[in-house]
Amino acid sequence: MANPVVYVVEDDEAVRNALALLICSQGWEVRVFDSASAFLEAGLPPKESLPCLLLDLDLGDMNGAELQEYLQAQEHNLPTIVVTAKPDHSLARRASDAGARAVVSKPFEATDLIREIEQALRPAS
Amino acid sequence: MALIDETNAWPAPMEGSHDTALLQALMDDSGLLVIVVDRNSRIQHFNGECQRVTGFTANEVIGEPVETVLSNPEAPSGTPTNPPSGDSTEEHPGLLLTRSGAGRPVCWRYKALRDEAGSSHRSVIMGTCIDTGVQPAAEEGAFRDHQIAQTTIDNALDGIITVDDAGVIRSANPAAEQIFGYQAPEMYGHNISMLMPEPHVSHHDDYIRRYLETGERRIIGIGRELTGRHRDGSLIELHLAIAEGFAHGQRYFVGFTHDIGPRKRAEREARQHLAQLARTTRIYAMDALASSLAHEIRQPLTAVYTTAQACLILLDTDQQEPATLKESLRQITRQARRASEITDQLHHFVQQGETNELAEHDCLALIDDVLLLLAHKLHEAGVWPERHYNNLSQCGTKINRVLIEQVVFNLIDNAIDAMRETAPPRVVTAAACLSACGSWCEIEILDTGPGIPEEHLSKLFTPYFTTKPHGTGQGLALSKSIVEKHGGQLSARNPPAGGAAFRLTLPLDQKCRGHA
User: Fold this and answer.
1) A22 and B319: CB-CB below 8 Å?
2) Which of B291, B293, B297, B307 is the best residue to mutate to test the A interface, defined by the most A CB atoms within 10 Å of its own CB?
3) What pLDDT is recorded for position A123?
4) Is the ipTM of this complex over 0.90?
5) How far is residue A116 CA from its own chain's centroid?
């Protein structure tokens, strides 16, 4: 069985690297993007790769909520975990409404995020 | 003032005279000016004609030195005007000083009054006004001119005081009496320093001497603000202009002065109000910044926290490679520093809020700092900041950094808000350059928003004018007064290329002018 792949869309380089390190420490594969458009340009991940998306909200050109709404419109039910410094912001609510499965606020406990990712990666039974 | 005479009645008839009625008529109605002085040249008697010509009452001048009312323009300054003893049959020209400070030409002679033992304790000075020698028509004209001048002086709002070249007060008009709280005769014959507080009191004679020696003008013909002293000892803020003149071969100075206390108080209040307004606006800005900065700090904190936890996990799972761990620790250090820089910025922004001093600052660094403070807001609004700096390196301007920072902050903040509804690309440009003439620093903040509606252009800097739903309408009004307080200007326009542009100019330090 293929290794799960965790996609990270985060514009802050330091946070992006930290997330990548944490994901690697769990033995998962990680792909990082600094913007929503870079993520979309790479092509949507194949569903059989058991992907999961860690999504920041404050992104330059297209924000996280807009990306989530786009994914919902594409009926690509990529499990998404929103990672944001403003969990109360309207963007977080929009992302949840568009199907994001969890909102994790920065800074977070590593174990909490890992648990969320594990649940997201578990194939729907 | 010491009052010597009890009444002002003519003293007992002189020896040998039996006709007191005749004497009284000569004294009161002959038109002769009669002053009796004691052996110290202090006035004992001042007859009706003298009172009529000078406007002083006898009580005001009795006990005063005779120089207070009678000057000898031919005598060098400082020598006694009237010898107290001896007789003079020769006529002397002189000036009888009037209440308003003008001089009435008189000619006079004097005679010692001796008692039976032949010793003299007092002298009588007798004089007549000399308005003759002038053609009647011209005399009338001169008199009319004199009257006009006198009316002007008496009714001037400015205090007008004349001093001679020894600094002795020779005249003072009613406005001057009002300002300083003295009656004019109380000032006559005294050094002008009586109207000054320390340290000028001790230096004023030096001021005059220096001017007489060097001709260097520090106040004559220039005018300046200084502090005077009221009779009650309180200090008065004054504007003083001095004119210099010559009359009868003698130099004199005329001071024109008015109380600027009320204006100064209004200025101080306006400054306090401005500072208060600046604080209020600052608090608004802080409010907006607080959430932005909280986010700004969360990013490095998240990086530090996550990286550290990932390292611990790696250590536990025996996957650690020294190279990875080392790089992670470096990352942690870098991010911790980043967080600390953000708090420094915030600290700097808050801490300097209260200072009022002007100091030399680099405008470019200031703009960079503001852009840093607004980095998050810019990012969040999808606005790209651009900087165009020209010719300004190494150039300082004397500013209150906090206030100017506030202005630049307001302008960039407004630019971001103005582009809320604008399609990308949204760009705010901070341009700074040396003005064409080389003596100004010009900072322009341009946006790519919809521009300013024509009908708003004229009201933009008016207090309480705002188009923002939660705006206070103070930002631009305050910014303009801050810039003008620095001797600069703030203006707005819609550049032909689109968007809005706000330009602020600040005077450069002398030494930077003309540098490229």
Assistant:
1) no
2) B307
3) 65
4) no
5) 11
CB-based contacts of A5: which residues, under 8 Å, 6+ apart?
A28, A29, A30, A31, A45, A49, A50, A51, A52
User: Are B48 and B160 in the same domain?
Assistant: no
Residues of B near A (CB-CB distance < 8 A)?
294-295, 298-307, 309-311, 313-314, 317, 319, 324, 328, 331, 334-335, 338, 379-380, 382, 424
The rounded Cα B307 to chain-centroid distance in angstroms is: 61
Q: Is the pLDDT assigned to residue B166 strictly greater than 90?
A: no
The structure tokens 């410094």 sit at A85
Q: How high is the pLDDT of residue B93?
A: 78
User: What does residue B230 show for φ and ψ, rounded to 5 degrees?
Assistant: -80, 160
Judge if B201 and B328 occupy the same domain: no
* pLDDT of residue B229 exceeding 80: yes
Rounded distance, CA B475 to CA B415, Å? 13
- Which amino acid makes up residue B93? P
Q: What share of chain A is helix, strand, coil (3-state, %, to 5)?
A: 40, 20, 40
Q: What is the pLDDT of residue B144?
A: 73
Q: Give the nearest chain B residue to A14 (CA atoms).
A: B303
Give me the domain span that covers residue B61. 20-141
The answer to whether residue B15 sits within a structural domain is no
Among A8, A25, A106, the residue to mutate for chain B (most B Cβ within 10 A): A25
Smallest Cβ–Cβ distance between B306 and the set A19, A26, A85 belongs to A19
What percent of chain B is predicted at pLDDT more than 90? 15
Cα B338 to Cα B35, B225, B333, B335, B341: the distances in Å are: 91, 51, 9, 5, 5
Average pLDDT over residues B182-191: 90
More confident site: B173 or B21: B173
Name the residue with higher pLDDT: B215 or B381.
B381
Name the closest residue on chain A to residue B302, using Cα atoms: A107
B252 contacts: CB under 8 Å, gap ≥ 6: B162, B163, B164, B165, B170, B244, B245, B246
Cβ of A21 within 8 Å of Cβ of B306? The answer is: yes
Other beta carbons within 10 angstroms of residue A56's beta carbon come to: 26
What is the domain partition of chain A in residue ranges? 5-84+98-121
Specify the CATH number of the domain A5-84+98-121. Answer: 3.40.50.2300
Inter-chain contact B307–A107, Cβ cutoff 8 Å?
no
